[in-house]
Amino acid sequence: MERNKRRGFSLVELLVVIVVLGIILAIGVPGYRQYMQRANRADATTTLLRIAAAQERFFIQNGSYASTAQLAPAPPAGLGITGTERGYYDLVIAPGPGGLATGYTAWAVIAAGEAQADDSDCAGFSINERGQRVAVDSSGVDRTEECWR
User: Fold this and answer.
1) Can you give the CATH number for the domain in which 120 is found?
2) Does 104 reside within a domain?
3) What is the DSSP letter of 27?
């Protein structure tokens, strides 16, 4: 008796492999995307911490905190921060209740069209002159514990 030698794959075997790969991708890709969103949030948090440190130096030299217009110019005229490192967030500095002489709140909000544009869980981050950190989702609900890790 001569053995029947098989060459290649049958259609059923090929379809089984495709289905298994589809299941693996359906589970893996969304998880990876969430991981990347969490990792990219560091672009906002590290920049806000840099702004807070630069604001204190600016306050010592000028007697008031810097405004949004003074973000980019180099010290002593400004903070010397042109934006977030990867450009995923836009930066804004709002005066505190007593104006820039007594306080500020620095905001990092998702830049339109960037990699973080679909991150609705942590859409905005802020820090103020007292070091208080806040994060909100796209509907304005406080998500500080989850987002400022």
Assistant:
1) 3.30.540
2) yes
3) H
Q: Which residues contact 73 (CB under 8 A, 6 or more apart)?
A: 79, 80
* pTM above threshold 0.90: no
Look at residue 117 and tell me if it is in a domain. Answer: yes
Is the omega angle on the peptide bond into residue 73 within 30 degrees of 0, that is, cis?
no
DSSP lists the bridge partners of residue 106 as 93, 127
Tokens 């217009």, residue?
69
- In contact, 48 and 144? CB cutoff 8 Å: no
**Local mean pLDDT, 10-residue blocks, the chain (149 residues):** 69 91 86 88 96 96 94 93 94 92 95 89 96 96 93
Q: Taking phi first (over 0 means left), then psi (-120 to 50 degrees means alpha), and beta for anything else, what does residue 75 get?
A: beta
**pLDDT of res. 33:** 84
2, two tokens: 């001569």
- Cα(81)–Cα(93) distance, integer angstroms: 12
DSSP-derived letter for residue 100 is: E
User: Among the residues of 7-112, which ranges form H helices?
Assistant: 11-40, 42-62
Tally of structural domains, the chain: 1
What is the domain range of residue 124? 41-147
